[in-house]
């Protein structure tokens, strides 16, 4: 097996290769003066290799880079091509919400499927999206890595900020051996949400909120406020994908949240929960 790291995910790719004890090639990706993507895989041939490409499809330029790397790897004769997409961009537009919209997640999947044999994602917004690949797929859950990270950190309760992430709260809560619940969220706009008071008593508790992603931070700030008003002693937050648009991380760090931690699907200064071992194990066993 040989791992190829696209420019969005080189550190993670190297960590995965280290766990697999195999070589890692960094795609030589550059930007042409007109903004187009150039990439090259520095290998004479990949004829005898099962190749794993690690690259996000967000932002848009990374999607293009992934498509180009796939083609280059095919051109070098790879025996098989597995895509590891730590953060799958466009996953939230997985259906038509208003007439005239595209099914973005579907069309991206179909494009990516043209040159690969298998696909691995991590906490995809909706696992259903993977059916558009029409290839064997696996969606790994970061819950195990999140629970391991918090095992020695005195968590008394786990919450998800909405019902959509309730399964994640259950998974992490059960692994930590503590109670879990979900909050009720209504989205008001791209940046604002309303969250109802929690049903479970969190007075004096060290609470951990888990979600699949933090984008603007609106969800997490509102959920934390609600839990603190209900008497929580501390509120820490763990998510799989720290997207952090428009300085959202600074906003979170300046709020009353006691700690923000993310998996390393997207690099940031709080991406402290490594999922490399999880990915390597899943690749080894696949
Ligand atoms: C929504 O369904 C997701 O699970 C996240 O809760 C949401 O995308 C977070 O977005 P933001 O940080 O902008 O509130």
Distance between the termini: 12 Å
Query: What order do the helices and strands follow?
Result: EHEEEEHEHEEHEHEEEEHEHEH
Strand order of the largest sheet: 2-1-5-6-7-8
SSE-based structural type: alpha/beta
Instruction: Tell me the quaternary state.
Output: single chain
Biggest sheet record: 6 strands, parallel
List keywords for this structure.
single chain, 6-stranded parallel beta sheet, 5-stranded parallel beta sheet, 8 helices, alpha/beta, 15 strands, 23% strand, binds ribose-5-phosphate, 286 residues, globular
How would you summarize what this structure contains?
With 286 residues, this protein is an alpha/beta fold. The protein is 29% helix and 23% strand.
Characterization of this structure:
By secondary structure, the chain is an alpha/beta fold. The protein is built from eight helices and 15 strands. The longest helix has 16 residues. The structure holds ribose-5-phosphate. Ribose-5-phosphate binds next to β13 and α6.
Write the layout of secondary structure elements.
Elements: E1 2-5, H1 10-20, E2 24-26, E3 30-31, E4 37-38, E5 50-54, H2 60-75, E6 80-85, H3 104-113, E7 118-122, E8 137-140, H4 143-150, E9 157-160, H5 166-176, E10 180-182, E11 185-187, E12 193-195, E13 206-214, H6 218-229, E14 234-242, H7 248-253, E15 259-262, H8 276-285
Parallel strand pairs: 1-2, 1-5, 5-6, 6-7, 7-8, 9-10, 9-13, 13-14, 14-15
Antiparallel strand pairs: 3-4, 11-12
Helix pairs in contact: 1-8, 4-5
The protein binds ribose-5-phosphate.
Residues 161, 164-165, 193, 211-219 line the site of ribose-5-phosphate.
């Amino acid at each position: 097996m040989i791992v190829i790291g696209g420019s969005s995910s080189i550190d993670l790719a190297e960590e995965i290769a280290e766990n697999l004890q195999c070589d890692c090639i960094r795609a030589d990706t550059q930007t042409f003066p007109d903004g187009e993507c150039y990439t090259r895989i520095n290998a004479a041939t990949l004829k005898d290799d099962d190749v794993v490409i690690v690259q996000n499809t967000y932002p848009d330029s990374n999607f293009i880079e992934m498509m180009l790397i796939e083609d280059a790897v095919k051109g070098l004769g790879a025996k098989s091509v597995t895509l590891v997409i730590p953060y799958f961009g466009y996953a939230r537009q997985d259906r038509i919400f208003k007439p005239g919209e595209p099914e973005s997640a579907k069309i991206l999947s179909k494009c990516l499927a043209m040159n690969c044999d298998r696909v691995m994602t991590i906490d995809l917004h909706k696992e259903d999206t993977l059916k558009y690949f029409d290839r064997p797929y696996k969606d790994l859950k970061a819950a195990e890595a999140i629970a391991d990270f918090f095992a020695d950190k005195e968590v008394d309760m786990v919450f998800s900020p909405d019902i959509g992430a309730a399964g994640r709260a259950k998974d992490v809560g059960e692994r930590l051996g503590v109670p879990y619940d979900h909050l009720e969220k209504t989205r008001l706009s791209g940046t604002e949400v309303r969250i109802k008071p929690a049903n479970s008593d969190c007075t004096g508790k060290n609470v951990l909120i888990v979600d699949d992603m933090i984008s603007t931070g609106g969800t997490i700030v509102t959920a934390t406020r609600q839990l603190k008003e209900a008497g929580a002693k501390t509120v820490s937050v763990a998510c799989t994908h720290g997207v952090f648009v428009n300085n959202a991380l600074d906003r979170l760090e300046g709020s009353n949240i006691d700690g923000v931690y993310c998996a390393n699907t997207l690099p940031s200064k709080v991406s402290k929960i490594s999922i490399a071992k999880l990915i390597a194990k899943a690749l080894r066993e696949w």
